[in-house]
Amino acid sequence: MKKKLLIFTLFNFCLVFTLFAQTNQVKSRNEVISAYIYLLSKNTKWPNEKNLQKFTISVLEDGHAISDILRDMTKGLKLKNRPIEIVNIESINKLYLKNTQVVFVSQSFRDYLDEVDRKIGDGCILLISENAVDMKKSMINLYEDIKYRINIEINLNNILNHELEVNEKILLTGGSRIGVSKLYNSSIETIKEQEKKFREYQNLNERLQKDLQWKNKKIASLQTEINQKRKEIEKKKKEYKKTLTLIEKKEKLIKEKVKNIEKKEKKLKNLQENYEEMKVRLREQKKLFELKQNEVTKAKENLTKYSLLLEGKLQKIENLDATIKEQESMIKKGMQIREEQANKIQKQKLVLFLLAVIAVLLLLFMISFYRNKNLLEKLNKELASAKDEAEYANKSKSMFLANMSHELRTPLNAILGFSELLLQDERLSKEYKKTINIIYSSGSFLLTLINDILDISRIEARKIVIEEEIVNIKNIVEDVVALLRNKAESKSLDLEIIYKTVIPECIKIDSKKVRQILLNCIGNAIKYSHKGKITVSLSVEDDYINIMVADEGVGIAQENLMTIFEPFKQVGDASEATGTGLGLTITKQFIEAMGGKIKVESELGKGSLFICKLPYIACSDNEVPINLVNRYTKKVIGLTANSKKLKVMIVEDKETNVLLLRKIMEVLNFNIVVANNGEEAVELFQSFQPDLIWMDRRMPKMDGEAAIRKIRMLKGGRDVVIIALTASVLNDEKYRLVEAGANECASKPYKIQEIYQIMKRYFDLEYIYQKESEREEEQKDFSYDILKVEMEKLDETLIDELYNSALLLNQEDMQSIIEKIAMQNSNLSRMLQQIVDNLDFAEIMNVVEEIRGQRSV
Ligand code: ADP
Fold first, then answer.
1. 609 CA distance to ligand 1 centroid (A)?
2. pTM of the model
3. What percent of the chain has pLDDT over 70?
4. What is the DSSP letter of 609?
5. 301-313 tens-digit pLDDT
6. End-to-end CA distance of the chain, in Å?
7. What is the largest CA-CA distance in the chain?
8. Could you write out the three-class secondary structure of 234-282?
9. C-beta of 523 in contact with ligand 1 (< 6 A)
10. How remote is the CA of residue 565 from the centroid of ligand 1, in Å?
């Protein structure tokens, strides 16, 4: 048995030797031992392998030769995938067996084997020793009989107790009682074959390793690529998220906008429906209007024909009437005188008769009769000359009136015309324009006054005509008060307006007469007051408007209250009487002609109250009050290229009037010459051959009428357009000028626009007007931007209301909205009022649209 074992051991040793000699060429004893320890550890199957973190092999030796070799050999190797730790122990006391899997006891510690074995106890340890003495303990005994050979023993008990399974293959190396017989039979060839296979596997393994390395590299590169792509994806994800939130936001906005649009669409639909209704109504009204217009034009034509005829006839009849009346009164007076005379004669006859009875004085009777007859004739003669004188005086009065008004109108033409031109001049500041405006208004009123002097003569002849206009009565009162305020202030008098009831914004009334009534009453109140205040109050009662002018002035004595309305009657202190005594007469006559009444209450020294009760007509829905003095008409700034360049002759003796006409035509670049009288005009006409002549009527040397007649006889004189200009208000004078050959006759003072319109009627002229926007800026004392800023403060409903009433041109609604706004923002209401007064509803709509645009964003 021993022999067998020996052979077997030898064989194993040779095998171990061969195995390691081939690769490491280990020849030393220690190396063999180390290889053996490693192989044994490797081929043992540990029952609690799974819990192991590492394999610890403790080497008990004198020095550290085996430990070093074993550490070297196992460097980088792993035992069942766990790291191997080699612990070198040089003293038995230092042997610490916990967590140790293999203990090798070298020869130098063979005496301690029992102690080591005891220490191991039941621990699951593979005990290997170089010198196994007790076979119970040892499993293997290598070269046990050779002193310098290696003796290795494994603790068999330990293996059995702890069910350590030792690979059969390793048992071959040391020999074992377990399965030895089985293995013994297997041939070396098989082992060799196995070894060969092992090599092949190793090669395969190497190749696979290389392949694996290459694949790993590829995987790594793929990994980096994947990482890059991942990063890119992350980036894109972030971007996507961002765009998603943006899209969501936009979606919200779009939804809101859609809602807004829908709202607007609804509103628009409503407005459109309103608009359509209005359109239909308008069309109907237009048709009606056209029908009526046709009727009116026909009637007008007939009327003008008849009125021309009638006027002539009336004039004659009136003249005849007046003459007849005068003659009648003369005759009556004559008759009276005659009757008186007849009575006298009768008496004298009686005396004569008595004398005749006495029969003495027949001759005397004859003489007396002869005398009386002479007296009668004389009286008759006196009567006739008195009548002539009266007629002459009346004629002179008319002539005087006509002449005076002409003389006054001529300079007024220059005053009004030039101030109108100055008002259009952009170079002038607002301050200047205000002053010029006062000149213009004063001039206008002066003109009205002149007309009123004529009115008095018309009143006397019972010729008052009532001309109703659509107006805002408040504007008229405010205008007159503004005009007289300076005067009142110069006398330290307070002047205020009070509206006692709601005053309609639009009424139909003869505004010119109302103005004059106001001017007279307020003017008197100022004139006849030295202290206190003057109150102009307005109230409406049924179809009457009451204008009351109260003052705290000198007052009127009770007995004079009735006489103040008589012509040329001035009462009270003579020093106060600065007027003509005509004012109240005109006022009363006007009021009565309008169907109203005037009343006066007064107390001497305390003041007076004039109450004028005037009937008025309410406006219908579509009527809008006209602007009283439209000083800002569209301004002509030139002519288009294809308009005719005219040759114009101005025939006028007054330099200011020439200047004014020249100024008006200056922008048109016409060729203009001036003749100072009719004679010069006739002379100049032949050489200049004008297209148009402005012909003044009254001039020295040769007047307009004669000049027109002469020019019409000259060569080319038939074709020239002659416009006569006259300050006279007498119609027959105008007829005479037209009869003489004037194309038409314009009255002085004329409006600038009138001159442009007359020229356009006769010639192919196309004017270039100043842009509306530029004019608008000039007219208003606020800018578009300020208006917008103020309107932005309004709430949505007010803005909507404003827009709708502007769209429907509903002035009444607009007015009530402006009143509402006035309570919150007086500045804005003032601006809106100006816009509405100019009928510029489009501007309000523009601002609202801009504000809405901003709000929806
Ligand atoms: P005038 O004022 O031009 O003299 P009016 O016809 O206007 O003529 O007035 C007639 C007269 O009536 C005046 O002269 C004045 O004596 C008197 N009168 C008119 N208004 C007033 C008034 N408010 N206060 C005192 N007296 C007045």
1. 12
2. 0.35
3. 72
4. E
5. 765 675 576 566 5
6. 110
7. 241
8. HHHHHHHHHHHHHHHHHHHHHHHHHHHHHHHHHHHHHHHHHHHHHHHHH
9. no
10. 9
